[in-house]
Amino acid sequence: MNFSSKPTLRQFAIALSCLAPLWACASDDANSGTNQFDGDRLKLYVAIPHFAKHIPKDINDPDANKRYCGPANSKLSAFKDGGDTILVRFIEIEPDGAQACGDTPIVKLGVQYAIPKSMLTDDYDVRRTGATFGALVIPFKFRIGADKPVSSSSTVAPYVGWRTGVLSSYGITLTPYFSAGLGLVPVTDPASGGTETKSALSTAAGLVLRSSKSDAFQFGIAFGKDFLDKQSKLQDPSVNKPWISVFIGLTSNGN
């Protein structure tokens, strides 16, 4: 797609509609197969009466089958994700939320508990926050202020982010992130009109939104800049422009 002048709003909309997916495969993405809770902080919006003391297998404890209740609005830390079971410890127990626990004994501070992972992901209302990381792939970019704004300039880079609790009560997860890595940037020679692909340091910051209505749905936006050598920037000034990339749709593992 060629643009002969500064991009208009209509051109910007067309460019966004033809951008290939901004794809993020995160360590906490339910579709990635690595949905790890290690190090995450959790807040219980409802009481959960299914916590069991974590007791080593070689220790005979009469309380091994006893269940404890985590009151609503209590906070806990997940320190080991064993796949089907998560080990946690409570860091704040909300006494006002204990009424909903009924006759089930309340959890205590300083005690390790185990709970089935599905209880936290599928069965109960829980807010989850914590660091996340993964791979970011950006195949197309819209260069802001460039004469030819749409560029097939690809970036493949690791990213780190923070899964926030903002809007979690609405079933929405927001993850701001930062990424830096190798970018391949087409540089145009004004004399010959030819294009040469050159390596660059590509940096980006953005936001990924996911919805609990569908694990496969995501919205992603990235703002970034590519850093090339001085000669390339003199040869093609457009490569020095900041860029934006947007994706709305399904992840690669969606149905």
* Ends distance: 30 Å
Residue windows where pLDDT falls under 50 for at least 5 positions: 1-21
Secondary-structure element series = HEEEEEEEHEEEEEEEHE
Number of strands: 15
The structure class reads mainly beta
- Shape category: elongated
Cα-atom Rg, whole angstroms?
Answer: 24 Å
Overall residue-averaged pLDDT value: 81
Number of domains: 2
Largest sheet: 15 strands, antiparallel
Beta-strand percent range: over 45%
Please describe the structure with a list of short key phrases separated by commas or semicolons.
single chain, 255 residues, mainly beta, 2 domains, 15-stranded antiparallel β-sheet, 3 helices, 9% helix, elongated, disordered N terminus
How would you characterize this protein structure?
The protein is mainly beta and about 260 residues long. The protein folds into 2 domains: about 10-35 and about 130-250, no CATH class; about 45-125, no CATH class. The protein is built from 3 helices and 15 strands. It has helices at about 10-15, 115-125, 230-235, and strands spanning about 25, 40-45, 50-55, 70, 75-80, 85-90, 110-115, 125-140, 140-145, 150, 155-165, 170-190, 195-210, 215-225, 245-250. The protein has a 15-stranded antiparallel beta sheet that branches. The longest helix has 9 residues, at about 10-15. The protein is elongated, with a radius of gyration of 24 Å. The two termini are about 30 Å apart. The relative contact order is 0.17. Residues about 1-20 have low confidence and may be disordered.
